Amino acid sequence: MVVIRRIDAEATALQRQGELALWPPLLGQEASQIGSGRALRDDDFVFPSYRDNGVAYCRGVEPTDLVRAWRGNASSGWDPYRHNIATQQIIIGSQSLHATGYAMGIQHDGADSVAVALFGDGATSEGDVNEAMVFAASFQVPVVFICQNNHWAISEPVRIQSHIQIADRASGFGIPSMRVDGNDVLAVLAVTRIALDRARKGGGPTFIEAVTYRMGPHTTADDPTRYRDANELEDWAAKDPIARLKALLRTKAS
Ligand SMILES: Cc1ncc(C[n+]2csc(CCOP(=O)(O)OP(=O)(O)O)c2C)c(N)n1
Ligand SMILES: [Mg+2]
């Protein structure tokens, strides 16, 4: 978590120096990404969004490869088949369809690996995510949908996206869901393991809502002070996932 935060800060600085065209910071979402990323097996296949650099790091993608596409000199920073993680998706939610299709392939092969789609709260309002959930539930394929609810879709707050909890959207598709504290790395690790295990045993898809917070801007091109209250950021800064884990480790050590 500390390493990926450092990489994230460095990439943000590189954008400010004109070395990268853009960077989408993951500040605040380290527990959601490292907790889920560390639960995976090597032969699972991940379909991430632009913000999931922490998960890509867990898949063994090098820091230099994480920034390659944002510098504009590669269409993908890494070989998806080498790390079993696809190129980061910018088209909101469409990776959920790719993951579901891949999971249909796993089922066809009779393998026990799992496809994982990572997307945001805003993505759950997109047709692609809803269509993916219909197919995943119909064919009971081994896919895990991990939604990082970071409370914002650029300047649109999650309370406008959904008047119910995001996790509850899944039940309409017949998909079991779990809502987890996304700033608690051990909790995220635990629920991801449960979902992966269910998928491996033929139990079909699971939807996880990791409740977290995007502490930085949407991207380096965004200024969140124009649309959100400073108090909100302060409240979530007090729940910083790294500070929480540090406090836990201190208690264990004493
Ligand atoms: C299909 C599509 N529509 C709109 C956009 C523009 N867009 C980029 S990021 C974003 C918000 C996504 O929010 P969320 O799903 O919550 O993910 P987050 O950025 O918070 O991680 C939008 C609307 C896009 N990239 N693709
Ligand atoms: Mg969001």
How would you describe the overall organization of this protein?
With 254 residues, the chain is an alpha/beta fold. The protein has one domain (2-253): Thiamin diphosphate (ThDP)-binding fold, Pyr/PP domains (Rossmann fold, 3-Layer(aba) Sandwich), CATH 3.40.50.970. 46% of the residues lie in helices and 12% in strands. It has 12 helices and 7 strands. Helix 7 links the parallel strand 2 and strand 3. It is globular. It starts with a helix and ends with a helix. 45% of the residues are buried. The model has no long low-confidence stretch (mean pLDDT 98). Thiamine diphosphate binds next to strand 2 and strand 4.
Architecture blueprint of SSEs:
Blueprint: H1 2-16, H2 30-37, E1 45-47, H3 53-58, H4 63-71, H5 80-83, H6 94-109, E2 115-120, H7 127-139, E3 143-149, E4 152-153, E5 156-157, H8 158-161, H9 166-169, E6 177-181, H10 185-200, E7 206-211, H11 230-237, H12 241-253
Parallel strand pairs: 1-2, 2-3, 3-7, 6-7
Antiparallel strand pairs: 4-5
The structure holds thiamine diphosphate (TPP) and magnesium ion (MG).
Thiamine diphosphate binds at residues 51, 90-92, 119-123, 150, 152-154, 214, 218.
Radius of gyration: 17 Å
The total of beta strands comes to 7
Bound molecules: thiamine diphosphate, magnesium ion
Structural class: alpha/beta
Query: Separation of termini?
Result: 22 Å
Can you write the helix and strand succession as a string? HHEHHHHEHEEEHHEHEHH
* CATH architecture grouping: 3-Layer(aba) Sandwich
Percentage of β-strand residues: 5-15%
